[in-house]
Design a protein that fits this description.
single chain, 1078 residues, 5-stranded mixed sheet, 36 helices, 16% strand, globular, RNA-binding
RNA sequence: GCCGCUGUAGCUCAGUGGUAGAGCGCAUCCUUGGUAAGGCUGAGGUCAUGGGUUCAAAUCCCAUCAGCGGCUCCA
């Protein structure tokens, strides 16, 4: 390492780095360097602004860290160190998300109890993180599995359980309120009981209870879940593969209704959406959350059917005149009531699905077909439902009435309508919805245009109202193309479409102008302009594309409202309503947006529906049939009623179980038993929860592993508090700040760094809990995470052998027998062949990971180079947010930079400091101050790669100085050490000590720059003639445009380029460049 | 299919209308004596492609191509 026996004794080698790093890590621990006091505690400085810096909660993997994991941790550490050096109180801690499936699976596979596995893995991970020199506050570390932690997770669950969502609060924005307030309102008659005519007091207890439970933000409901009988548990959607099998074990997964705890996150949909505007997050993540919440404006409309009404949801009420049939989901509860006795004669297909034809031939009834179709549809998993887009379905032998025109339309069931979205029923508008179009085509149902974009509307107008001279045998296609060009011409859109059509048409009326457009018309619509020829040929091409050749056929399309049927695809964009009039409502000619409003108004008036807002977001399924999770603080009495346990009984501790594995079965209908059901002594208990001592059964489901990560950041603030989950004063300081600042700076965590894979679920769930706590007055900010930053992944190559199994990527050889990993650059685009133990392997590229057998442990790099080198390398790989390939060959570059810097300050032979008190030469000093300015900016913006590049450049400048035999000026040495300290803290601590400072460098102020020293007094400016750079001139910084112009024109090379031609124009941008136009 | 991001030196990336840049790698030479060492100097670019706007485009606009990510019968 670092040379042979000749290596100078005090060179910065791996061995020296290790020695320095160990010494400083010990000293940081000993002195509690990174312990951060809370308000009111000794050492707390209230005058400093706060920074709460947070990493996404890691799961303590048994596999240990690889070099990809700490990328974000190193970044937040650098940022935290920089903030400490710029006068902030910094809170930066690290805890462990140790409940959940991965921990349980690890325990099963390694045959240890999860508790033991977690303890072991946490301590390994703490060691690894410590080795990276991360300056976390060790006193604030928490684990979700600590009783002292999950006691408060249960407490928050109770807060949610004891709350309801008052949609009227805050002028309609809504807020969570204690459920006791709801009961008071009912009692005082201030609020009517939904679905009840009787006053609250006269209601039976059971009804009261049902009403209250239906309002709770945490509630029990029977919902379809992903049930995997072989694993004996429900699975989250992301744990189910595309083929409807479990990710682990590849077992079949079924949809099965189960009674589960739910969280009413849908109540918060609007606020979760709107408050995204308050936070400084990557736009990408905001978009993902918006899509997930999936707000859509539309209308509910009731289609009368027999004596009942089918309620549909649509985002396009303006197309209601084009609704030619109705589709409801196969599981829709109304199907049984609506299904007809027998089929009459119809002009469309009655049923399409495997076996349907035979059934129809045998004269099966609608009911029988419905049953058969339901069986067919339920066999498909969600994923399979989406696979083939071929439409299937069954006409149920009933008709409904279209509320806008009274038209009788057939009712179908089809699995392309999902029961969980909207009302589970749609009006089908085949001309303006792709799915409906496909279905209508398959079932031979009518497809009727009701919206045309402007050009098509113009075509329709032309087709239906053409003058004699515009139809065959005249050259009508030319006329039409010309006319379309005019209609679609620039500046025409301000006019109403109808107005414009009228104007243009009347001008072309042969009765008026003789069919000749005169030159007098050239400035008004319909005129002859310069570009008419080009525009006309464009429209002729369009007519060709639309296969418009025969006038009568063309006209027929519009007479039958069958333009899109003929086109073969739906038009789902906005345009103008057509063919949309009845005796009660007429929207022809209205723009889509206006038409939507008009139809919604009509529906409301006619009591047939109303405008409404729908969300894709569903309530959050909060139960897991697992052992390794937080128990619910809930018990059931003998009749099965649920009761919350009082706060005083928390925590409800998880019983120790030797066998904690879930029960598996091959029968998808086998009764669901959770592991905790088997803990008989625990599952049944005698308690006094306010009704005297009674026997109760405990809730034996556990919480999902999202629960702990929903609020862990709040516990970092006050980790040892045994009275509250967090004291309000402490919460207020770290989340809202001490001063009266702008709203933006009061929004919680100042920087939250983590992978984009948590863009939706974790961040949405955590925001939801935080908002509930905010509404109930437990936290001071409406949002938990003000600034979010997604670090990229470290990627690497992976190799699979013939069996498709990953092989150790570090043993893969190139064709010439070298290790692939040592020469990635050369073989980046090569196809190999690559071999592992002589056998051919296939290369892949992706995220680094243990399972891909391409992971490199940070410990190895620390051993070979020191962790300062590793930190520096990881940060200089590229922008933090970018994913980038790990390339071991680039690490020595970072290592050598540290060596060069060290050598600039330290005599490698004696180990003595080698700096001089002489002032730095002006050039060096200027370079220093420019660097300080740049590094400060880069640090704030988390652009550590560029701040490192700037420091390398400065070090190169310094090397030129010291290379001449001079010692580094102390002002440069000090400033550079301080600037490098957040990035390579151990080396800089050491140098800082040698520079005569007893205090840890982490407490020292970051260098300031002198504004005067970052500007040059002379700048070089390029002079270009006709846009080409011909020369460069030096001008003083303050020089005005005239002076610069004179200097430029005086330049010889410039004069040569001008060649005496007359000068038309001289453009001078002071400080930037001169351009001479001749 | 839809949405988003990216495309600049061999590699990883800076560069928000005004001079094409950094680090690493590579090459020459010097020091060092055999190396993942130090220093000097240097080569290396159709800024993905094609149009447009402008005195001036890597940068702004439009289209296309390639790569990556997310969502996907969401009415």
């Amino acid at each position: 390492m670092g040379g042979g026996s000749d290596t100078p004794p005090f060179r910065y080698t791996a061995a020296l780095a290790q020695q320095i790093e160990n010494a400083w890590q010990d000293r940081w621990d000993r002195e509690g360097t990174f312990v951060t006091p809370n308000p009111g505690q000794a050492g707390f400085d209230a005058s400093r602004p706060k920074k709460f810096i947070l990493d996404m909660f890691p799961y303590p993997s048994g596999a240990g860290l690889h070099v990809g994991h700490p990328l974000g941790y190193i970044a937040t550490d650098i940022y935290a160190r920089y903030m400490r050096m710029t006068g902030h109180n910094v809170l930066h801690a690290m805890g462990f998300d140790a409940f959940g499936l991965p921990a349980e699976q690890y325990a099963v596979q390694n045959n240890v109890h999860p508790r033991e596995a977690v303890n072991r893995n946490v301590s390994t991970m703490r060691q690894q993180l410590r080795r990276l020199g991360l300056g976390h506050d060790p006193t604030r570390s928490v684990s979700t599995t600590d009783e002292d932690f999950y006691r408060w997770t249960q407490w928050i669950f109770l807060q949610i359980y004891h709350s309801w969502y008052d949609a009227d609060a805050h002028g309609g924005a809504g807020a969570a309120r204690p459920i006791a307030q709801l009961v008071e309102q009912f009692e005082r008659g201030e609020r009517t009981v939904p679905g009840e005519n009787r006053p609250w007091k006269s209601l039976p207890e059971a009804v009261k209870r049902r009403v209250i439970d239906e309002h709770r933000l945490a509630y029990l409901a029977e919902v379809p879940v992903n049930w995997c009988p072989m694993l004996g548990t429900v699975l989250a959607n992301e744990e189910v593969t595309a083929d409807g099998r479990s990710e682990r074990g590849n077992y079949p997964v079924y949809k099965r209704p189960l009674k589960q705890w739910m969280m009413r996150i849908t109540s918060y949909a609007e606020r979760l959406l709107n408050d995204l505007e308050l936070v400084d997050w990557p736009e990408k993540v905001k978009i993902m959350q918006r899509n997930w919440i999936g707000r859509s404006e539309g209308a509910m409309a009731d289609f009368a059917c027999n004596t009942r009404r089918i309620r549909v949801f649509t985002t396009r009420p303006d197309t209601m005149f084009g609704a030619t049939y109705i589709v409801i989901s196969p599981e829709h509860e109304m199907v049984d009531h609506l299904v007809g006795e027998k089929y009459g004669n119809v002009a469309f297909e009655k049923a399409i699905f495997p076996g349907a034809a035979e059934m129809l031939a045998n004269g099966c009834s609608p009911r029988e077909l419905v049953m058969a179709y339901r069986a067919f549809a339920s066999k498909k998993t969600d994923a399979q439902r989406g696979e083939g887009k071929d439409k299937t379905g069954v006409f149920i032998g009933a008709y409904a009435l279209n509320p806008v025109n009274g038209q009788r339309v057939p009712v179908f069931i089809a699995d392309y309508v999902l029961s969980g979205y909207g009302t589970g029923a749609i009006m089908a508008v085949p001309a303006h919805d792709e799915r409906d179009f496909e279905f209508a085509k398959a079932f031979k149902l009518p497809i009727r245009d009701v919206v045309y974009p402007r050009p098509v509307a113009a075509m329709a107008h032309y087709a239906l109202h053409a003058f004699e001279n515009e139809v065959p045998p005249s050259d009508w296609r030319d006329e039409l193309a010309d006319y379309l060009g005019v209609v679609s011409g620039e500046g025409q859109h301000q006019r109403s479409h109808a107005e414009m059509l009228h104007m243009i048409r009347s001008r072309r009326d042969p009765a008026r102008s003789g069919g000749v457009v005169t030159a007098a018309d050239t400035s008004s619509p319909g005129s002859i302009g310069e570009r008419r020829g080009v525009v006309r040929s464009f429209w002729l091409e369009t007519l060709d594309d639309l296969e418009i050749h025969d006038f009568n056929e063309f006209r027929e399309r519009f007479v039958n409202a069958g333009f899109y049927a003929r086109q073969g695809e739906a038009f789902s964009g906005a345009g103008l309503a057509v063919n949309s009039a009845s005796t009660s409502l007429k929207i022809d000619g209205l723009e889509t947006a206006t038409a939507k409003v008009r139809v919604a108004e009509y529906l409301e008036q006619a009591k047939l529906g109303k405008g409404t807002i729908n969300y894709k977001l569903r309530d959050w399924l909060f139960s897991r049939q697992r052992y390794w999770g937080e128990p619910f603080p809930i018990v059931f009495d003998e009749s099965g009623e649920a009761y919350a346990m009082p706060e005083s009984m928390l925590p409800v501790t998880l019983p120790h179980m030797g066998n904690f594995q879930p029960e598996s079965s091959e029968d998808p209908q086998a009764p669901v038993k959770t592991p905790l059901d088997r803990a008989k002594d625990w599952a049944t208990t005698t308690l006094d929860i306010g009704f005297g001592a009674q026997r109760y059964k405990r809730e034996t489901n556990t919480m999902p592993n999202w629960a702990g990560s929903c609020w862990y950041y709040l516990r970092y603030l006050d980790p040892k508090n045994s009275e509250q989950f967090c004291s309000p004063q402490v919460e207020k300081y770290w989340m809202s700040g001490n001063a009266e600042k702008s709203a933006a700076s009061r929004l919680g965590v100042d920087l939250y760094v983590g992978g984009v894979e948590h863009a939706v679920l974790h961040l949405l769930y955590a925001r939801f809990w935080h908002k509930v706590l905010f509404d109930l007055g437990h936290v001071s900010t409406p949002e938990p995470f003000r600034r979010l930053f997604n670090q990229g992944y470290i990627q690497s190559y992976a190799f699979k052998d013939e069996r498709g199994i990953y092989v150790d990527a570090f043993s893969v050889k190139t064709p010439d027998g070298r290790n692939f990993m040592d020469c990635i650059d050369e073989f980046k685009d090569s196809q190999g062949p690559f071999t592992f133990e002589g056998k051919p392997v296939v290369r892949e590229y992706g995220k680094m990971g243990k399972s891909l057998k391409n992971a490199m442990a940070p410990d190895d790099i620390c051993r070979d180079y020191g962790c300062d080198t590793l930190r520096l390398y990881e940060m200089s790989m590229g922008p933090l947010e970018a994913s980038k390939p790990w390339n071991i060959r680039d690490i020595p570059g970072s290592y050598r930079f540290l060596q060069r810097f060290w050598r600039n300050l330290i005599d490698e032979q004696t180990g003595a400091l080698r700096v001089s008190d002489q002032p730095a030469p002006m050039e060096l000093r200027k370079a220093l101050h420019k660097t300080i300015k740049g590094v400060r900016q880069d640090m704030e913006a988390l652009q550590f790669n560029t701040s490192i590049a700037k420091l390398i450049e400065l070090n190169n400048t310094l090397t030129k100085h010291t290379g001449g035999g001079s010692a580094a000026p102390v002002e440069v040495a000090r400033a550079m050490t301080l600037m490098l300290a957040p990035l390579a803290p151990h080396m800089c601590e050491e140098l800082w000590g040698k520079l005569g400072n007893p205090k840890s460098i982490s407490q020292e102020p970051f260098p300031q720059f002198d504004e005067k020293l970052v500007v040059d007094d002379e700048v070089e400016m390029p002079v270009s003639v006709q846009g080409k750079v011909r020369s460069r001139i030096m001008v003083p910084v303050g020089c005005d445009a005239k002076g610069i112009e004179a200097a430029a024109l005086a330049d010889e090379k410039v004069r040569a380029s001008i060649e005496g031609k007359p000068i038309k124009k001289v453009i001078v941008v002071p400080g930037k460049m001169v351009n001479i136009v001749v």
